[in-house]
C-alpha cells in the first residue's frame, strides 16, 4: 500500500465517522425536540443511522487491519 493509498483510506474512515456522527445527531434531535409528534420519522432515520454506523465500523476495522499489517512489515 502506498502512502497515498493509506492517507486516502484514513480520510475515508474519518468521513465515514463524520457521517455516522451527523446521523446520530439527527437521531438525538428527533428524540429531544420532535417526539412524540414526529414518531413516523423513526424507522427511516434509525435505518440511516444504523447504516452509517455500520459503514464507519467496517471502514475502521479495515483500516486498523491494514495499519496492523503495515506495522508488522506486511506489504500488499
The number of distinct structural domains comes to 1
Mean pLDDT: 95
Poorly predicted runs are none
> How many strand segments?
0
The number of helical runs is 2
SSE-based structural type: mainly alpha
Q: Gyration radius, to the nearest Å?
A: 17 Å
Major β-sheet annotation: none
Distance between the termini: 6 Å
The helix content, as a percent range, equals over 70%
Order of helices and strands: HH
- Overall geometry comes to rod-shaped
Question: Strand portion, in percent?
Answer: under 5%
What does this structure look like?
This protein is mainly α. The chain has two helices and no strands. The chain has one domain. The chain is rod-shaped, with a radius of gyration of 17 Å. The longest helix is centred in the N-terminal third of the chain and has 32 residues, at 3-34.
Descriptive tags:
mainly alpha, 0% strand, 76 residues
Concise overview:
The protein has 76 residues and is mainly α. It has one domain (12-71).
Q: Topology of this protein?
A:
Elements lengths: L2 H32 L7 H30 L5
